[in-house]
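Two records follow; treat each independently.
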Amino acid sequence: MDTTVWALLISAISISFIHTASGPDHYLPFIVISKSKKWSGMKTAILTVVCGFGHVFSSLILGFIGVFLGWQLNKISWFQDLRGNFSGWALLIFGGIYLIYGLIQAIRNKPHKHFDVMGDDVYVYEHNHTEMVMPQKRIKVTPLVLFMIFVMGPSEPLIPLLFYSGVKHSMSEIVVLVISFTLTTVLTMLGMVLLGRYGYSTLFNTEKLERYMGVVSGAVVTVCGIGMVFLGW
C-alpha cells in the first residue's frame, strides 16, 4: 500500500477506536444489562456485535454520501485538473472545522447519556450536569432500544475520509476504509464490554476523554489533510 492508503487507514482506525472507546454509552449499557439480567457471555457478545454493526451502518451511510459527492464532482470536466489539490484541501478544511466544533462542544455543557439500574431493569436518559431528569423521561432499555441508540449515533469524521477517496475514484481506498472502520468499531465495543463484564472496567476512565472525542477526531482528520496537501501523501 502507498503512503496515502496508509494515512487513510491509520486515520480510520484511530477515529473509530477513539469514538468507540471514549464513549461509555458504547459499552456500559451492555455491561449493566448483562449483569442485571444475568446473561451469558455469548448472549452479551452477540448483542454487542449486532449493535456495533448497526452503529457502523449508520456511519457508513453518512460516509457514502461523501463518496457520492466525490464521484459526482469527477463527472465535471474542469474538475479533473483540480481534484488532487481540492480533495486534500477539502480534507484539511473539514478537519479544521470539526476540530473547532469539538472544542466548542467540549467547552459547552453538552447533554450526555446516563444509564441507571432500578431492580432488574436498566433505564437511559439524557441530561446536562445542571438539569434534573424526571422519572417519566427515562426510557427502559431493551435490546431493540439499544440497537436504535447505536443506529442513530453515527461517526461523522468518516465522511471526509470517504469523500477524499470518492474524489480520487479509488475503490481500493474505499474498501480499506470501510473494512478497517467496521472491524475496529465492532472489536473495540466487544473488547470493552467483555473487559467490563468480567470486572476490568476500573482500568478505564473514559468519561473525561469522551468530552474531547470531537477534538481528537478533528485533529486526526486535520493531520491527515496536512499530510495530503503539504507532505505529498
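The next record belongs to a different protein.
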Amino acid sequence: MTAELPTTHPLDAHAPALAGLARDTGGGLSVEVLPTAQSVTLRLDPAGPARAGVDAALGTALPTGANTWVAAGDGEVVWLGPDEWLVTSRSPNAAVGEAVLRALVTGEAGGAAVDTSAQRVVLRIGGRLARELLSFGCSLDLHPRSFPAGRSAQTLLGRTAVILLARDAAADSDGGAVLDVHVRSSFAGHLADWLLDAALEFRADPAADPATDPAASPARAG
C-alpha cells in the first residue's frame, strides 16, 4: 500500500511571518521556504566500480572533500561522510532519483540509495544579516573566510540538528550571503520560531509590531 503524501507543508503557518522578515529588517534578511526537494541518501565506496556510473548520472563528480557540496541540476550533492551523500532535487520528477541510483550501486558492498524526501525541509536564508542571524544559534565560525560558498556542515542551529550549505553570495540581490538550512520536518516549526525570535534583533522597530508587542495589539487595547 502506498502512503499518501501530506497535503500541507510543515511551515505553512510560518510562511507569512518568515516572508515578512525582508520587510521588517529593511531588506537585510530574507527567509524563503523552498519547494519540497526530492532527496536520496546515497551510500557507496567512492573508489568502487559504481562511482563512475553515479558521477555520469548526476552530471558531476561526487564531492569527496569533507564538509563540501556541489550543484547537480536543480539540486545539490552534499558530502555527509566518507561513503555517504545527500542527493537533492527541487523537482519531484528529477531524472536521477532513488531508482536510478539504487540500480547503479546494487551489488556493490555497502551500496545503498534510500528516498528520504519527506525527512527534511529546506529554508534559504539570504541578505547582509544572514550569517549574523545564524551565528546567534550556531557554534561554527560562519564568517565567509571560514565558511565560504561550497562549504557544508552538519551542526546545531537553535539546538536543532541541521545541514547547513553556504551558497554563492552573488545569488543575493543586496550582496549578502545566501545559505540553505536543511532541517528535519518534525523540527521545522521549532526552527522557524527560533529564526523569527532571533530576527527581532534586526527589526527596525519591533515594538511597533503587534505580534511582538502585546500593548500594541488592538485585541488587547483597553
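Discussion point: Residues 1-5, 206-222 have pLDDT under 50 and may be disordered. How would you locate this feature using only the C-alpha cell line?
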